[in-house]
Write a structure and sequence with these properties.
Layout (H helix, E strand, L loop, with lengths): L3 E5 L20 E2 L2 E2 H11 L4 E6 L4 H6 L4 H7 L9 H9 L1 E6 L6 H7 L1 H4 L4 E4 L3 E4 L6 H12 L2 E7 L9 E9 L2 E9 L10 E9 L3 H6 L11 H11 L2 E5 L3 E4 L3 H16 L6
Parallel strand pairs: 1-4, 1-6, 4-5, 8-12
Antiparallel strand pairs: 2-3, 6-11, 7-13, 8-11, 9-10, 10-12
Helix pairs in contact: 1-4
The structure holds uridine 5'-triphosphate (UTP).
Amino acid sequence: MIKKCLFPAAGYGTRFLPATKAMPKEMLPVVNKPLIQYGVEEALDAGLTEISIVTGRGKRALEDHFDISYELENQIKGTDKEKYLVGIRRLLSECSFSYTRQTEMKGLGHAILTGRPLIGDEPFAVVLADDLCVNLDGDGVLMQMVKLYNQYRCTIIAIQEVDPQETNKYGVIAGDLIGDDLYRVRNMVEKPAPEDAPSNLAIIGRYILTPDIFDLIKQTEPGKGGEIQITDALMKQAQNGCVIAYKFKGKRFDCGGAEGYIEATNFCFENFYKTGKAY
Ligand code: UTP
């Protein structure tokens, strides 16, 4: 059973400056909730109750968000404003939260390795909170992936078809179709130019990883931009054993940039806020 979910949240969020100068990108609100809260809700809905967050300098607001605010609780006690806190109270009562800090921002692979002491030797999920994923018609994306993990018992990565001109923003896979929307990964390239991309199937911010990934990350040399990429370690895992890529059901918004963030805001406003499902 997978219980743990790791949130690498130490990045600088440079695409969203100056908003992210003193505030973590993961705390940007989509309508009335910060991005990271959507991610933790998705994890809890998938049965993952042990939440581990990799933070960095200037990210203390993340810890404060997943804690009681006594003054606030006292202030709104017995008023109809208590309804605004129903969602976050559920997370606080049903999940545990632990934190570690990445002191040098050496990439996503390095951030995941930094989380190793919180995870130990068991399979775990990874959520990049700036990818907001929703599925209005059934299981959330992590839940879909947990079900697949229970069946295949190997690393599962979420993929999405992207505009072929945009492959240079993603890790891109090549694989053999083994079932509905399921590929066994053969090759993986980090941010390829459109002409070098093996497909338009791009890796997005949801993973279920088996713990052998940690040693593979350790053996990984820094890649593009001096960062330790998770893609390189995943490629080794695919060569040694098995990595399955899953074209998930639902929508994904890239909230690390303005365009996806605005789309997510409009979507959540229409589907959650206006319908009273936003708390
Ligand atoms: P991104 O590249 O999307 O995030 O990393 P970023 O670096 O914060 O944003 P930009 O590109 O400068 O705008 C994907 C995820 O990995 C985390 C980020 O916080 C984000 O959730 N990350 C990235 C780390 O935790 N540490 C790192 O060193 C790099």
